[in-house]
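S.,

As promised, the PRP run. Input:
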Amino acid sequence: MHLIDHPMIQHKLTIMRKKETGSKDFRILLREISLLMGYEITRDLPLDDVEIETPICKMTARKVSGRKMAIVPILRAGLGMVEGLQTLVPVAKVGHIGLYRDEETHNPVVYYCKLPEDISQRLVIVTDPMLATGGSSCDALAMLKERGCTNIRLMCLVAAPEGIARVQKEHPDVDIYVAAVDECLNRDAYIVPGLGDAGDRIFGTK
Ligand code: PRP
Ligand code: URA
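Predicted complex:
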């Protein structure tokens, strides 16, 4: 588990948490934080040497090696983290996994899955701002593994200890990146203090 608690990320997250922050600012801040987190998530990508010519002379420069990347948001809220990552890695393909939590059981229900054909050969970054019980993330990770993915990272904004523990137990091979680990879950399985319902705040649906 990697806690990415850079001061700029903490500052932006504080504004997102405030109940008076509206959808427009919430979306902008989530995009900005995603870009900053993406910088850390891609820190260990291997580099290859490449021969180039500057206006002055030839040189051996560095470029990110052939490894291909896919960004896979868990719908809906994960969509809010895609653009920031795409700013960093514009050639990344994007897949979508649609899951919603049943309001009574809090268990995830799958309603959509569309992934790049060669997803199994890619480094996959799964995005979802909220890691609460961990059910949605665990199911999304299992769906990706069923399709042959072996190199997956999970990027969340706010996590509950319960969600982190569940992902670590069910998917010990997946590195988790979060900007904050909060206290606990409430009776409705919402993160406390959290930031409320991320999907509703991004899309203004409540
Ligand atoms: C939220 C959130 C996660 C999930 C987290 O999605 O975006 O996907 O809940 O909870 P869990 O860790 O307990 O599974 P939600 O089901 O509200 O759907 P939405 O993004 O469409 O609003
Ligand atoms: N989903 C959310 O959007 N927020 C939470 O706190 C938990 C699940």
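The mean pLDDT is 96. Helices lie at 7-17, 23-41, 82-88, 135-146, 161-170, 198-203.

- D.
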